[in-house]
Design a protein that fits this description.
It contains 17 helices and 21 strands. By secondary structure, the protein is of the alpha+beta class.
Length: 493
């Protein structure tokens, strides 16, 4: 990989940056060096959305717009992208963008601190739904999901949601996608087509390979480098734990790891696929996943984070793992020296944030079997806040039913142990038995006793065990079309 400047497009111009520390965030550069102080720093952890910006990336013949949190996005990771901040939306004659004007007209701003973030989330939504080749209406539900990563303490959300729905009423202001794509292709040639990035600075080196071969070679040569796969956690370690890395290895520039393929009854999701795209692919096969994906995290987190990063991070409360474990997912690990190996996802974890990855190895693919005939899937997330919050308990249940009996079962649990776990004892209590209340209550009792969760700021151990058991009973009641009543749940032992 060649050593060169980090380059991206902003305002129709190429921005070229040298001597960028590997831990430098996009937000810090915007505010401290670019003078773009419209982008605010609120929480510094991707929760409030005040720092939201929009990135543009080539997606075939189109431009893909992604809203992201700049506070936890590494500056080196936007190499080769187009960038928009709130300062870039007003027209040359001073006319406001429809996202801005709608907020003004709907009285969607008071103190104004969060407003730039809302504007940018609305701008991203505008480009995807209004100013596109096949415009679609912005419904209340669409607006709520698009703004799920933005918080406001002043107005309440009604006027902001009203503004999001009103954007289409104003004269059209579309980004010239063809012109931006031309610039991005020219930038790719300038950077060296198919060549990765080595951004060297006095503080260290940021490596961003462009091919899988480059990535595996870099992993072998730099086993001490902090692997970055979206930075939704690494960004937190920088902003909250004040970590500074002498070397980072970013997997998101690798073309081969941005693919989703389907063959032989298996959905193969490459590790650098963004969470939003990965969940879309999973929901195309199993529509019940969509509602769960919307609760996984706010849209800016799902547009930055990757499925591979979420899995490799190994958090016991990472929400994708219980779902994938229940679905019987396998993962593929690769090394330049060791070659390729596969394993069941639940076998990947050996302790708290500890995995079977060797120092020169990387997770490259997630393999998810297609739905089986008679499959039923239920996924539940229990957290204190509905949107953009960390789970106290996450439970996923996959059943294959034949003639009223459980032929096969997969149960994945998060928040119940030091690692994401498969509930093998509860599965055994279901398989071969009739799918009825007696079976489910017996299995729920087994599930309560199978894990020894901890008590922490999110929930007590007793609460977690009780909730997990109740969720299993709830799944049965919902499958029978029964109304879930508190008295039905509280009678569990």
């Amino acid at each position: 990989m060649q050593t060169r400047a980090i380059r991206f497009i902003r305002g129709g111009e190429v921005v070229s940056l040298s001597d960028v520390p590997p831990s430098r965030t996009l937000l810090d550069w915007l505010r401290d060096e670019a003078g773009a102080t419209g982008t605010k720093e609120g929480c510094g952890e991707g929760d409030c959305g005040a720092c939201t910006v929009v990135l543009g990336e080539p997606d075939g013949e189109r431009l893909r717009f992604r809203t992201v949190n700049s506070c936890i996005r590494l500056l080196s990771s936007i190499d080769g992208c187009a960038l928009w901040t709130v300062e870039d939306l007003r027209a040359a004659d001073g006319t406001l963008h429809p996202a801005q004007q709608a907020l003004v007209d709907c009285h969607g701003s008071q103190c104004g601190f969060c407003t730039p973030g809302f504007v940018m989330s609305m701008f991203g939504l505008y480009q995807q739904r209004v100013a596109c080749a096949a415009p679609q209406p912005v419904t209340r539900e669409v607006a709520q999901e698009a703004l799920s990563g933005n918080l406001c303490r002043c107005t309440g959300y009604r006027p902001i949601l009203d503004a999001a729905q009103r954007m289409a009423d104003y004269p059209l202001r579309a980004v010239d996608e063809a012109a931006v794509l031309r610039q991005l292709h020219e930038l790719r040639e300038l950077n060296g087509a198919g060549q990765g990035l080595t951004a060297a600075s006095a503080a260290g080196t940021a490596l961003r390979p462009a091919t899988l071969a480059e990535l595996l070679a870099a992993r072998r040569e730099h086993p001490d480098a902090q692997v970055v796969a979206g930075a939704t956690d690494v960004g937190l370690w920088i902003t909250k734990l004040h970590q500074r890395y002498a070397k980072t290895l970013d997997v998101t520039g690798v073309t081969e790891l941005q693919r989703i393929d389907e063959a032989g009854g298996v959905l193969e999701i490459s590790a650098a696929v963004r969470l939003s795209d990965a969940f879309d692919a999973l929901a195309a096969q199993r529509p019940e996943i969509h509602a769960f994906a919307a609760r996984f995290a706010g849209l800016p987190v799902r547009e930055s984070g990757t499925l591979g990063g979420n899995i490799a991070n190994g958090s016991p409360i990472g929400d994708s793992m219980p779902l994938l474990i229940a679905l019987g997912a396998r993962i593929r690990l690769q090394s330049e020296v060791r070659g390729v190996r596969e394993m069941a996802l639940e076998d990947f974890y050996v302790g708290y944030r500890q995995t079977r990855l060797a120092p020169d190895e990387l997770l490259t693919h997630i393999l998810v079997p297609a739905p089986a005939p008679g499959e039923m899937l239920k996924v539940y997330k229990v957290s204190k806040r509905f949107d953009d919050d960390i789970s106290a308990v996450c439970l996923a249940l996959r059943l294959q039913l034949r003639d009223g009996r459980v032929h096969d079962a997969g149960i994945g649990a998060g928040g119940m142990a030091a690692t994401p776990k498969r509930a093998v004892q509860a599965e055994a209590a279901l398989v071969g038995r009739p799918w009825d209340e007696a079976t489910v209550r017996a299995a729920a009792d087994v599930l309560q006793r199978e894990f020894t969760p901890i008590s922490d700021m999110r929930a007590t151990a007793d609460y977690r065990r009780t909730v997990a058991a109740h969720l299993l009973l709830r799944a049965w009641m919902e499958s029978k079309g029964r109304t879930v009543r508190v008295e039905d749940l509280t009678c569990l032992g």
